[in-house]
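[Structure tokenization] protein backbone as discrete codes
[Encoding] learned vocabulary of local backbone shapes
[Protein] chain in single-letter code, fold in tokens
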Amino acid sequence: MKITVLGSGTSSGVPVIGCRCAVCTSSDPRDNRLRPSISISHGDRRFVIDTTPDFRTQALRSGLERVDAVLFTHSHADHIMGLDDLRPFNFHQGGRIPIYGAADTIGTVRQVFHYIFSERARTTFVPQLDTHVLNGKPVDLHGLAFEPIRVLHGRAPIYGYRFGNAAYLTDHSEIPEESMEKLRGLDVLFLDALRHKPHPTHSTVETSVESVRRLAPRRAFFTHISHDLAHKETEQALPPGIQLAYDGLEIDVA
């Protein structure tokens, strides 16, 4: 199994529009961050977690040629607004694509993209999608089980996912204890680490370092990174076994 980081940035992306800070003007390509998403390769199948507003660029840049399913963490704009860019995959694959999420997430997706799900939609002009509501239990996708992991994004409960020996958690300010227990024995763990300064709906670098200490995955990667964090300097200060994710990073999972 291989994970590709499609985007590692926060909701505004990096560089931020109109910003001239050191990170937004950095020549280090790892400081250029599209909105947060990953793809997962499992045999000849490809899965995506979140379709960001940058999804078309991400798919082209990473060479993504098929999508067998999409799993959504939640329905904020930086995680769903690239949904319409699934349409070319319908053409190439010749079938409908299932999308998964919590009930409120799927409800919002159907409302925002009402033209896709309307009974009067013309099939050649909209993505062909089947919606599936997750009830907190694992879902098997072509032999790979995805287990929803409940986390808190401020006051809002959303999902991260565990799949095999890897887990992807983004946009979280707290990981409940019952969810921590589902994250033991991992090879790869992704965690939100927005910045050093506290934020009401996101984890800080320091909080995520403590989560890694408790969970002891073999490797940890921080994502959803703001322009407050320069890649090189931040990563040099992290404990062994923890790295900052960056766009285009590919990780083989044991």
Helices lie at 55-62, 77-80, 87-93, 103-112, 114-117, 177-180, 205-215, 231-236.
